[in-house]
Amino acid sequence: MEKDTRDPQPFEFRSPRGVRKIESHSRNWNGITVRNIVHHLDHGKVWHDISSRETTVAIVLEQIGGYAEPRLNLNRPTPRSRFDAGHATFVPADMPVWGYSDGIRSVRELRMSFPPALLGSILGDELDQAKIDKPVLMLYDDQITRCAALLADECREPLIGSRLYGENLTTALTAALFTSRKATTQRAQGLSRWQLRQAMDYLEDHMMQDISLEEMAKVAGLSQSQFARLFKVSTGMPPYKWSLDARIKRAQELLLLGKESISAIAIQTGFADQSHFTKTFRRATGATPKDWQRNRKL
Q1: Predicted structure pTM score
Q2: Are residues 83 and 38 part of one domain?
Q3: Helix or strand or coil: residue 297?
Q4: How many domains does the chain have?
């Protein structure tokens, strides 16, 4: 079962000026601390140092009023052709990069922090070493923004998704930032026959457990990034979706038998509790477990 992994420690910016209040909800996937942060700011010029002792990735998702941007020099604007939200910034560990805004009332961002060495364990030989020491400012990339928005939703509503879901999203986001285009286009044929069989057997044997993407990737002898991408090529869906569909199908079988309570079925199919099960089941089928069961008995 998945646990709520919100960070109990309050989040603080380095060298802040003009930041009135910070709201932060965080989770941890793949060893990456992921935070949905809302900055409430004074009117006028506001700034803080984005860097930390760990590698940092920040994606601005929403801004109200004015504009926001990262700067290498606090007094020197970053060249840009767009002023809307949706841009990503990569900051190597302990490299000062300033988050600067003017005239903004609030900003919502997704921020990821992790040890630099972690990228190798997630991306394997697809990691582009040339990309990990140089900061990136004002990167607009639709895939990165979509992943960031979904991760932010998971931070704000814990237990709605699965562990595999969060790991798949963090893997996809880091791959978009730190792998080369050449690497991601290789082996587009998908998993080999034995890799797919091993993966399917592992999923079926551990369907009700809180399995990780790393565990599944090891079974196939691949990095997490390679495995997630090639599994989707082979099956048409990411690992978390295949696993979730299998659990929902098993729950439906138990509901049809009518021998177990909904709370017992929730636990047997690997959900945290009845509430988590009901929300996920309704998202997948359009009905609550109780309504779905009742309609099948008519």
Answers
A1: 0.87
A2: yes
A3: helix
A4: 3
